[in-house]
Specification:
There is one protein chain. It contains 16 helices and 8 strands. It is of the alpha/beta class. Strands 1, 2, 3, 4, 5, 6, 7 and 8 form an 8-stranded mixed β-sheet that branches. 38% of the residues are buried.
Length: 440
Amino acid sequence: MLPLLLRYRSRRWLTAGITRIEVDRIETLVELYRQFQAREIRLFLAFRHPEVDDPMSFLYVLSRSIPRAARQQGIALRSPLHAHYLYDRGMPLWGGAWLGWLLSRLGGVPIHRGRRLDLKAIRAARDLAANGRLPMAIAPEGANNGHSERIGPLELGMSQLGFWCAEDLHKAGRKERVIVVPMGVRYRFVQPPWKPLDRLLSRLETECGLTVDAVDLADEEKRGEHCARRLRRLGDRLLSDMEEFYRRLEPRLAVESGLTAGNEQELGDRLQVVLDTALRVAESQFGLSSAGTLSARCRRIEEAGWMAIYREDLPALDAVSPVQRRLADWEAEAAEAAVRHMRLVESFVAVSDDYACDRPTVERLAEVASILSDCMARIQGIEIPKRPQLGKRWVQLTVREPIEIGDRWPLYSRDRQGAKQAVKDLTEDLRVALEEAIAD
């Protein structure tokens, strides 16, 4: 169905769709799948996750690119060529029950991210990593960041699962090696969509109350810089509106975050203060700590919101009085309002001041403009914004040199401190490899 889906997307949205997918060093994946099927290795695919289209792109690589390359090399691989993977347990809440049904039957393991450790999901993933008939695919970034050319912070889970797999094999007396292969992905436009980008920026300027600063598309040398200035002006206006909003909404929390009037900080620093304030507003609703990274705080808030909205502690509906039901509704409505602040932060969590301005390519400009569009849509009450479709794209996936966990086993198995250090070292090496992959 995948080729039909790709063609359907291109026809349904006239300017959307992925027209081709290229894989650098595909022969590495062919050999790794051969070794996996020969029970010589256990395999982890550590892939970048900048866009919501990533799963479809990787599915194409597994189901089309690898078999084609294997035939060309005269290597016989057994079907299906696929992978197990982890997905956020909350996806069926916004996508519908059918999405959970589909993802689980495509080899996915739902995992609950938040304050509580999802032991059931961890046990399932750990068992599949050591014993599953397919490799395990994991995005070390944990979520998409909207940037093809910038890596988000990596979580430790990918590395920890790899060492757990090595530990389980060691205990069972099995000789398979544990291999992690970093895979980068970048999206590029087939034709630079300067006109659609200009229309998008004009719409955003109007929504922010700014005068439209149209681009002179004929000036090829300056149009990128012009769009970057427009994005910066949009960001400054939106940020100023958000600063004023949170100063009025929660004066105490705004002061605690350093959100004061007349702030002379750089745009990026101001953004971090606003995001911290927004999360503090949501955390105060649920009685949560403000410790940790922005992403970790978002996950805690999301879990607390779900617990308040999707109540597991209430009895059956026929045993709940109308008054109890309405009070529960009030609590859920308050939780939903608090979660909105977190969703706003999610839209901005990967944004930095220099990403598009220092190198104003049409891809970077389009990515940042799309993030701003998401944010404005959420402010206007659209819970699941649709990304602007600016033009047909092609995808470049780059396979980096595989990392063998066995080389790190002595440090991991030494003691608890050694295990923590081994996990951190592997995560850092993954980050470097993924950065090199998108720089190729």
